[in-house]
Write a structure and sequence with these properties.
The complex is a heterodimer of chains A (199) and B (297). With 199 residues, chain A is α/β, with parallel strands linked by helices. Chain A has five helices and twelve strands. In chain A, 21% of the residues lie in helices and 34% in strands. Classes of the chains: A alpha/beta (199), B alpha/beta (297).
């Protein structure tokens, strides 16, 4: 059975683990370096990126996980996970950890505070989903990061239409997928399936 | 699909979703922007902006109300993490004011003096999510039926004594466990006894969990306290007086954050507890003049 890790330090760990188990994956909560042994991919869940960043260092996971990610192990980051994986973070803390794994510039809480959090339907634009009759996904944005610049190697899988401006909200670069919203909150596992297809 | 991109705000999923993101974290009471900075530096997932921590409210007596909006705004300016604030039980105008300030969560809190001795706020009318305290499962389900998107066990705030938080968590988790064993006919009697809507009682019986996250508050004053309530089923911790009434708040804050995230790792809890200095002064519950946890209906 495929073994996949969920970074288990802080945030909505359980919902990702639940969706992975539904997809017949053996789920490991990654809390210290030895938990990385034998996993084929990892999910970085939503939570507070500043807290997760501090705990990654406190638990000596930062360098071990960076090494795994840079050696090409597939990784899927939602919300705070997107922030941790992006090459540039705006409005973050200066000491905030970045794995620099996908060429994106993201602004923390780029849509505003909780009063501006929202859900909506979005279209998934990837050949991976072409067999699927239903291309739409319910996207829940919670104090979400906003992508402000995209590098040349990045493939955009979903956009949010923001008063005429098209903001990338799901992006992929080689073995890295990031989402500004939370598919695990709306119980939709299609992005998880896309991630598992990279293993 | 002309509905694509059509945004809905303030939905159950959006409200409860923020609580999901706070799981495994620590929400700290702060009374100044400087304290908020210390809290964020130590890894807090959110701060609660207050004029006085519960220990001082208890000491000073009198009527405790919503904080000055200028204090809340100064704290919002200082940190990047979510900022929560408290409204009095039943005081829906304080809640309207807090919503207009765009706080991220409103705590309808027994720590403040209640404004209504029979009714809580109709929380469905707000776009901002609410957290409410509960001593037992019935109270938790009544608050959820009024629209709370997160429940915290009340404990006894400002005492530095964990015994009430333990009692309340055991009561809530214990009754949830019993509900999952009850047959469908017994659930109607449970609803009557809990004074809670039957639909919520049935939902808890089938899922084995509250429909919203369950956090712990009231009396956490050491890293071991934080880990204790996490092992008992709390999903995150509110720490009030326990941080900034200790002798070294920055270290205590960091230690409580690490102990909450790694609550099953006794060696780590030992490590972060070493040489922490004095925890806040504690009080025995039966010597208290006012029991805040008795507020709420």
């Amino acid at each position: 059975m495929t073994r996949v890790g969920v970074l288990g330090l802080q945030g909505d760990i359980a919902r990702h683990a639940f969706l992975l188990k539904e997809l017949n994956v053996n789920v490991v909560q990654v809390r210290e370096p030895k938990d990385l042994d034998g996993i084929e991919g990892i999910i970085l869940p939503g939570g507070e990126s500043t807290t997760i960043s501090l705990l990654l260092r406190a638990n000596n996971l930062d360098e071990a996980l960076a090494e795994k990610i840079h050696s090409g192990m597939p990784v899927f980051g939602t919300c705070a996970g997107m922030i941790l994986l992006s090459s540039k973070v705006l409005d973050g803390r200066p000491d905030q950890l970045s794995f620099d794994a996908i060429d994106l510039s993201v602004r923390r809480n780029g849509f505003g505070r909780q009063l501006d959090s929202f859900e909506c339907d979005l279209k998934l634009e990837s050949d991976f989903f072409s067999d699927s009759a239903q291309h739409f996904i319910r996207a829940v944005f919670i104090r979400a990061p906003k992508v402000e610049a995209v590098g040349p190697k990045v493939e955009i899988i979903a956009y949010l239409d923001n008063q005429g401006e098209r903001i990338p909200v799901v992006c992929k670069q080689e073995s890295v997928i990031v989402s500004a919203f939370h598919p695990e909150l709306s119980n939709d596992s299609r992005l998880h399936q896309l991630f598992l297809s990279l293993l | 699909m002309e509905q694509v991109n059509k945004r809905s705000t303030g939905t159950d999923l959006v409200k409860r979703g923020l609580a999901e993101m706070l799981k495994g974290g620590v929400i700290m009471d702060v009374v100044t922007p400087e304290q908020a900075r210390i809290a964020e530096d130590a890894g807090a997932v959110a701060v609660m902006a207050l004029e006085r921590v519960p220990a001082d409210i208890r000491r000073d007596g009198g009527v405790a109300r919503m904080s000055d909006p200028s204090l809340i705004e100064a704290i919002q300016e200082e940190v990047t993490i979510p900022v929560m604030a408290k409204a009095r039980i039943g005081h829906f105008v304080e809640a309207q004011v807090l919503q207009s300030l765009k706080v991220d969560y409103i705590d309808e809190s027994e720590v403040l003096t209640p404004a209504d001795d029979a009714h809580h706020i109709d929380k469905w009318k707000f776009e901002i999510p609410f957290v409410c305290g509960a001593n037992n499962l019935g109270e938790a389900l009544r608050r959820i039926s009024e629209g709370a998107a997160m429940i915290r066990s009340k404990g006894e705030a400002g005492t530095g004594n964990i015994v009430e938080a333990v009692r309340h968590l055991r009561s809530i988790r214990g009754d949830i466990a019993k509900l999952t064993q009850a047959d469908s006919a017994e659930l109607f009697e449970w609803a009557k006894r809990l004074q809670a809507p039957i639909s919520l009682v049935q939902e808890v019986a089938s899922t084995g969990n509250l429909p919203v996250p369950l956090f712990c508050a009231g009396g956490i004053s050491t890293p071991a306290d934080a880990a204790l309530v996490m092992q008992m089923g709390a999903q995150a911790n509110f720490v009030g007086s326990g941080i900034f009434k200790s002798s070294d708040p920055a270290r205590m804050a960091r230690a409580v954050v690490e102990a909450t995230a790694n609550y099953q790792d006794a060696a780590l809890i030992a490590k972060v507890s070493k040489g922490l200095g004095e925890a806040m002064p504690g009080y025995e519950i039966d010597k208290l003049e006012v029991k805040l946890a008795e507020r709420g209906w």
